[in-house]
Amino acid sequence: MYLNPNRGYLAGLIVLVLAIHFWAIFSSGYFYIWWLDLLLHFLGGFILGTASISFLLPRLEIKNPRPLVLYFFIILGLVSLLGLLWEYFEFLIDFFFANRGIIPRSQLGLEDTLSDLLMDLLGGAFAHFLFIKHSRSTKNS
């Protein structure tokens, strides 16, 4: 049903996203490049979707006439859950550190949170559609 994502590719993406994230934190990159947060949330959703396809879905034994639709919602569910947990993490960082002036705020408001969650979902959906195997019907003439 899915092409098997290369785990080395997945590890490389994780390292890349973490490197960009730490660079953006320490250099104020999120302040100067407004779309960087959106890009990293998209890539984070893509990584989570790819990890779901690579690690979790091969272990599921779902008997369903339309398993790809079910897998799509499992991937989006996992991506949205982890994206939501990340947003709570950012909220707690702001509560304990940014409110005391130790670091800049990471949550800029409801619009920022919702756009982050949307980009997480779009990244997970992109992973689903990128790695899905398309069956080709062959005609015997």
The SSE string, one letter per element, is HHHHH
Count of helical stretches:
5
Helix content: 55-70%
User: Would you count the extended β strands for me?
Assistant: 0
Coarse structural class = mainly alpha
How many angstroms does the end-to-end distance come to?
27 Å
Proportion of strand residues: under 5%
Q: Which residue ranges are poorly predicted, with pLDDT under 50 across at least 5 consecutive positions?
A: 135-141
Biggest sheet features: none
> Mean pLDDT across all residues, rounded?
86
Question: How would you characterize this protein structure?
Answer:
The chain has 141 residues and is mostly helical. It has one domain. It has helices at residues 7-27, 29-32, 36-56, 67-96, 110-131. Helix 3 (36-56) crosses helix 4 (67-96), helix 3 (36-56) packs across helix 5 (110-131) and helix 4 packs antiparallel against helix 5 (110-131).
Q: Which features would summarize this protein structure in a list?
A:
disordered C terminus; single chain; 141 residues; mainly alpha
Task: Provide a quick synopsis of the model.
With 141 residues, the protein is mainly α. It has helices at 7-27, 29-32, 36-56, 67-96, 110-131. Helix content is 70%, strand content 0%.
How is the secondary structure organized here?
Blueprint: H1 7-27, H2 29-32, H3 36-56, H4 67-96, H5 110-131
